[in-house]
Amino acid sequence: MSSYADVYAGWKQDPESFWMEAAKAIDWLTPPSAALDASRAPFYGWFADAVCNVCWNAVDRHVAAGRGDQAAIIYDSPITDTKGRVTYSELQERVAGLAGALKARGVEKGDRVVIYMPMIPEALISMLACARLGAIHSVVFGGFAAPELAVRIEDAKPKAIIAASCGIEPGRVVAYKPLIDAAIERSEHKPGTVIVFQREQAPATLVEGRDLDWFAAQEGVEPADCVPVGGMDPLYILYTSGTTGQPKGVVRASAGYMVALTWTMKAIYDMQPGEVFWSASDVGWVVGHSYICYAPLLFGATTVVFEGKPVGTPDAGTFWRVIEEYGVRSFFTAPTALRAIKRDDPQGELIKKYDISKMRYLYLAGERADPDTIEWAQRHVGVPVIDHWWQTETGWAICANPAGIELLPVKPGSPAVAMPGYDVQVLGEGGEVLKPGILGAVAIRLPLPPGTLPTLWNADARFEKAYLETFPGWYETGDAGLIDEDGYLYIMARTDDVINVAGHRLSTGAIEEALAGHPDVAECAVIGVADKLKGQAPLGFLCLNKGCDRDQAEVIKECVKRVRDIIGPVAAFKTAVIVERLPKTRSGKILRGVMSRIADGEAWTAPATIDDPATLSEIGDSLRQIGLPVRS
Ligand code: COA
Ligand code: AMP
């Protein structure tokens, strides 16, 4: 048995051999002659001369290897009271059928397809059908509103959209089709085809000539075979929040993603093919792409597609019920979900009702895992709780506790150590590597490993500016933190205007853009404030136009609605205060950092560059009025 230290040192000494060895786990049409392609540095590529197909590796080859009768997908939907299983053979048939329908509508290799789906097996089938054709999918999370969907349609220019007629949230059915129709209406780019999976809770009206029913689209159509793609051909684009309202289209290249994800299934998640893996996330997020869809299937495991919430569907025992019922071995969720369960079941009484003895590890990611929550889970769930840190951009864990190689001591509050492929360091303002224990910008030495983003969709310059410019030779993660003497990383905060609400990454800039469009708002700022359940919650500060004498509560209500209509319910924007003016530096920069410290009840000082120190006291006063424990 090798140790983590040996494996990491082995990678560092010879990255090329490390990744070429890992690449042996993949079926290639033409195997790669080399791992790294540095010919376009700092735009690095991996396995660039290989020819492959991701769908083949995730589906067909398991059928060819005799796993056809094994469950590929287990569907469990407490919210609709439905359960089901899809074997690898059935998955192959269903994916080939849908791929045939897309092909019949002219979708070819390199074309984009937007997918807007809730947590049903058809979401994975849609992703895999695109991969089968070499078409590039872009999944949009169901909690985004039509304008956000429109921005993605405009940027990705999809030839087709695949959608379900609705998603189901506790207490309400979210009709998707009107959102899609509105998004297409807003967008200058008009996709030629919309394939709709009709759900009985809210069947959609189809637009003639453009929209097709999921099953009707497949009638009389030849199932499609896997199309060979190049190693660097994109598998998908996934949009994520940046500093501005325009989301970043993270590109995922095919070959490196397959190699890296397959490697993680044993090394990080300690899985064996045939076992059940469950990631309780959503296909709209990177965790869903990597660990609901691709990694478990590439590895020949069984993945659980769960349509429900950690609490309220029907209670805080639902996760443990699923773990018992399907014999889940490794389980992955967000700290927010555990906090919600802990709030409803503090003594873990519901955990005791179920036999969860098959589960070996509980993995957390998506936001900072607070030590309280980790310790509660360790005590009541009784397995090692592994926090790991990653980003949409990387597609897999940068730092983790590699349980399948060696379970290192768990230090609550730290996502543990760098994974092979990542040279993670904490840098000072001048780009110097800081000593252990000192807080700075967390950066990764280039090149990033296989599976991580090679660039942003149609935006090479933005990629360089956003990630590579501040520290030449490094990828800037946007997180601040420190590394201790044992090499454990601690993530403390973001260095940009991104906030993390219930494990969802949101741009305060995008929320500000939505607020600024309100006719009575002259100026605004949005910050994240500490929230017991969701980690952070957005809070808005609004300066109204001179002479505006409208009822303030009314304006706030309209602003809350505006954010919901423009960005979506996922923004969870519920609170705003009206202030006379915003605290700014003399050069006009809004002091969001100090405002956050005031709102969180932390000690704060006015920076020397402040224009008018009284503005900060005014912010404190307005926050006290809404009940926040602000210090003077
Ligand atoms: N489609 C439509 N609306 C959605 C949605 C979807 N797929 N997902 C969430 N929403 C809506 C919710 O219904 C809610 O709307 P509301 O304002 O009308 O109540 C809003 O978006 C905010 O949702 P959420 O942040 O999920 O809060 P919640 O109060 O509904 O639930 C938790 C709280 C803790 C149960 C929930 O946040 C949760 O499960 N968190 C874990 C998140 C997670 O797994 N993230 C993975 C990232 S790796
Ligand atoms: P996303 O791209 O949505 O996955 O969000 C990535 C960001 O979430 C990271 O840059 C961090 O700010 C935060 N994040 C993700 N995982 C963790 C973790 N384990 N600990 C602390 N922060 C995390």
From TrEMBL:
Alphabetical list of InterPro entries matching this protein: ACAS_N, AMP-bd_C, AMP-bd_C_sf, AMP-binding_CS, AMP-dep_synth/lig_dom, ANL_N_sf
Signal peptide: none
Domain Acetyl-coenzyme A synthetase N-terminal residue range list: 4-58
Family according to the record: Belongs to the ATP-dependent AMP-binding enzyme family.
Gene Ontology molecular function: any one: propionate-CoA ligase activity
Protein name: Propionyl-CoA synthetase
Span of domain AMP-binding enzyme C-terminal: 511-589
Keyword Ligase applies: yes
EC number: 6.2.1.17
GO cellular component terms listed in the entry, alphabetical order: intracellular organelle lumen
Pfam families: ACAS_N (PF16177), AMP-binding (PF00501), AMP-binding_C (PF13193)
Keywords for the protein's UniProt record, in alphabetical order: Ligase
Stretches assigned to the AMP-dependent synthetase/ligase domain: 62-445
Domain of life: Bacteria
UniProt enzyme class: ligase
Record PROSITE patterns: AMP_BINDING
